[in-house]
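Action item from last week, closing it out:
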Amino acid sequence: MASHANPKSGRVLSLFVLAMMNTAIVVGLEGFPTMAGFGLGLITWYLFFGLVYFIPVGFVAAELGVGFPREGGVYAWVKEALGVRWAFVASWMQWIQIVVWYPSVLAVCALAAADVFAPELGDQKWYTVPAVIGIFWGSTLMNLFGIQLSGLITSLCLWVGTFVPTALAILFAVWWLADGQPSEMSFEAEQLVPDLSTWGKVAVAMTLFSFLSGLEVNGVHFRRVKHPNRAIPASLFISMILVLGVSMLGALSVAVLVPRGDEAIAGGPLQVFHTFLSFYGLTGWMPLLAFCVLLGMVGHMIVWIIGPVETLRFAARDGVIPPAFQRVNKAKVPQNLLLLQASIVTMLCLLYAFVDMNSVFYIATVMSAQLYLVMYVLMFISAIVLRYTRPDVDRPFRIPGGNAGMWLVAGTGAVFGTFGIFVLFTPPDDANMPMDHGLFVLLTILFFLLALAVPFVVYALRKPNWKNPDFDDVEHETPMDF
């Protein structure tokens, strides 16, 4: 069989640009308060997850991205290895997990918006529910006009609203300690050992699967890099250092300034700013910093609103989604899929009217992580399968160590991903997330099974006239479904 040629269209990506793209797609502010509860032990957790999850995701996405550089990303990779059915499951999981994730990031948006205009609104449900729903529908409607201008705007939002607030939160924490103020976190060396006394504490740490996800999204761009054998691992190493460094220091800044048990899980660095600026009489700066956080979270969300929807729409080429969800508007945007997505998010956000914000944030994070891990396990399995079924394909970057190296890297990711799915069904052992344990288990199990069943049901009910002829020109031979 012929190998896949390197497309010549599109500009070449530099090592720096690729590393920044990888970092921007992963780093977010929403995970800082959750991990801050582990104190100094969060360093160990981040390094552990970097080894068994973040690095495998990056290296597997790199090999698949340069070896099978097709539109559709994960859908194309899994389809090549396991067939259409499992490719649809993978793309569905990538989409539905982000739908479930939106309420958590929207909570940060709502709190940041309140700090800009009227801080006292942050605790009012009558404000929170309309705010999160309004922000999401506004972002969705903006995407309906096309994505040509959104790239620059989104990049600006991410840099100004993610890296700047995180850098300031870290700077404020260092300033606080250098000024002799007391830390809310112990710096004793034994605190580096994580608390594993209950499965509930381990389950909270497993949410790192969600906070360190997304690196595969850029895998389709790896083919556009000069000298991929050197540039890809170098960019991944730089990304790993930046992501883990920024995430760890950002979470530590929360741990230093915010008393344990007082963290607003949706508060991000906002609580750091409140504590620091109030103590030093600089509260006049709070609206500006809150606006930066709001900008960053909206930008982080917009990055995801259209991407997974487009990936899911690639299932149209194989006729596995109804024609109504294949249609695009004049701006070439899958309008009906975006509106369906917004409707589901709206229903999920209504939970904020009945349940504590911290609890909704945590449940959304857990469900998102579980569903995303299903996709990652399929991606890891596909990478292993393709080493044997498509050994002839030119892979400008290959995971070192031959097939044994692939088994080690992808196998580690698959094993720990599967482990994470089951552990996340455990109710959290954290004072900031008071919730009925029985209800938590019931909700997570029922939602997980429902989300997993939907793509199989849709696939079983597919009709021949669902196939979209517009995609026929990019089709190629694929293996039979398992």
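Closing note: The domain at 16-471 is CATH 1.20.1740.10 (Amino acid/polyamine transporter I).
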